[in-house]
């Protein structure tokens, strides 16, 4: 007869119990987890090693550039600083040539809807003309030192390529501009915001022309001041290159490091001194209801500061009021930024002169530019964008006038007036200060030299 309350069967202890595994886990599960941990560690170690090797290679190139003798006057590396903001219609493309001869290309795109620009691709021709200028990339070297033709022309080198963000009008012409030169142009280092897969044909072109893919790096510089309490939805942020925390520079010539003011230094030249620094990138918080698109690409733009010969050039990409607020108030290095941004010499006005997203009065007053304010935008642009805004132009003009720097040769430009016209209307206005627009004034050049 079966006992009505049989004793509970004693649970057999297994090796799983001795390992302290949870119910349902097995030794196999534990082995899988351990294998996964080891695999992840190996992958991370391998990626770190590749980045270290790439960084070492980059340093060798940097050292080689620093030893170049001065070039012929009027050519790249002649110890002067050159910059050109190319007339792209609705778009951006800025070439920088440092005193030691580094070529930096910031963005290369256009979504111009103006007929002459679109039909003839005039902006593409202008970018090519810019790059072939001896002050920038220069003409193709197709002969040797004795004047004999080379079977394969020597490769030209873009030292640094910066994509401020992945809106098409900032990258979509790069592959087109260089399409017929597959074996002639090589790229050193690449910095970008956002996922690089979002850069379309530019992504593919870069990967086939960069000297080392480990030097294509996503840059994030959005860390919030740790002494300030995070607001609702705000994240602490980070300062990283391809996910690796950026460390402080140990010497004045260290690159891809934090300088004394907290910027990521990507160029550090001496004799003469020239630095290029990333002040912000990947800002995500919508601090000022900046009317950015849902993805927040614009507020995440890379913001660059060039310092050379005691002068400063600020390049803002499509950064927004939220980016500005991060730079001035919420960022980890906001106090340092307010000092180094005060009284810049030339500013590339953010987001093609948009008043909808950018150029807050507080930011304009802080910058208080000494020399010029430049806007990359079409003469009439894209009608539903209303760029550049006359309100932004007037804001900068007033800043120049109030600072006593309003005297400038008489000139005029086209801007969209949304205050006196509904819907807004593009009209030509006289400018009483050194504010210039590519669509109205053509390519905008900068030449600085040692005083």
Automatic annotation (TrEMBL):
Family annotation (InterPro entries): Competence_DNA_uptake, RibonucZ/Hydroxyglut_hydro
PANTHER family from the UniProt entry: DNA INTERNALIZATION/COMPETENCE PROTEIN COMEC/REC2, RECOMBINATION PROTEIN 2
UniProt protein name: Metallo-beta-lactamase domain-containing protein
Native source organism of the sequence: Micromonospora rosaria
């Amino acid at each position: 007869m079966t006992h009505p309350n049989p004793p509970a069967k004693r649970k057999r202890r297994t090796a799983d119990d001795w390992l302290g595994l949870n119910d349902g886990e097995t030794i196999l599960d534990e082995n899988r987890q351990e294998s996964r941990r080891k695999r992840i560690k190996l992958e991370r170690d391998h990626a770190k090693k590749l980045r270290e090797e790439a960084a070492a290679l980059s340093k060798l190139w940097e050292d080689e550039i620093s030893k170049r003798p001065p070039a012929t006057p009027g050519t790249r590396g002649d110890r002067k600083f050159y910059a050109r903001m190319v007339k792209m219609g609705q778009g951006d493309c800025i070439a920088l040539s440092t005193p030691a001869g580094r070529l930096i290309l910031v963005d290369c795109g256009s979504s111009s809807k103006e007929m002459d620009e679109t039909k003839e691709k005039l902006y593409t021709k202008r970018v090519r003309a810019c790059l072939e200028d001896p002050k920038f990339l220069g003409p193709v070297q197709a002969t040797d030192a004795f004047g004999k033709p080379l079977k394969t022309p020597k490769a030209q080198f873009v030292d640094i390529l910066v994509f401020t963000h992945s809106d098409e009008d900032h990258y979509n012409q790069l592959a087109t501009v260089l399409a017929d030169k597959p074996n002639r142009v090589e790229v050193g280092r690449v910095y970008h915001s956002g996922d690089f897969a979002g850069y379309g044909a530019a992504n593919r072109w870069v990967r086939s022309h960069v000297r080392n893919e480990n030097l294509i790096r996503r840059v994030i510089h959005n860390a919030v001041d740790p002494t300030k309490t995070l607001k609702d939805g705000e994240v602490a942020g980070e300062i990283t290159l391809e996910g690796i925390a950026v460390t402080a520079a140990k010497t004045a010539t260290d690159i891809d490091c934090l300088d004394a003011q907290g910027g990521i230094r990507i160029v550090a030249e001496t004799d003469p001194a020239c630095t290029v620094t990333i002040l912000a990138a990947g800002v995500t918080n919508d601090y000022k209801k900046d009317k950015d698109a849902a993805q927040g690409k614009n507020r995440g733009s890379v913001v660059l500061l060039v310092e050379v010969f005691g002068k400063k050039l600020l390049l803002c990409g499509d950064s927004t009021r939220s980016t500005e607020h991060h730079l001035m108030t919420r960022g980890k290095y906001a106090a340092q930024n307010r000092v180094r941004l005060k009284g810049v010499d030339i500013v590339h006005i953010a987001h093609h002169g948009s008043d909808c997203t950018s150029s807050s009065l507080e930011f304009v007053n802080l910058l208080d530019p000494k020399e010029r304010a430049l806007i990359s935008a079409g003469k009439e642009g894209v009608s539903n964008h209303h760029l550049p805004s006359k309100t932004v132009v007037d804001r900068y003009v007033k800043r120049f006038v109030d600072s006593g720097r309003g005297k400038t040769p008489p000139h005029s430009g086209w801007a969209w007036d949304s205050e006196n016209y509904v819907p807004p209307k593009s009209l030509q206005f006289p400018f009483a200060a050194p504010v210039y627009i590519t669509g109205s004034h053509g390519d905008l050049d900068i030449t600085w030299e040692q005083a």
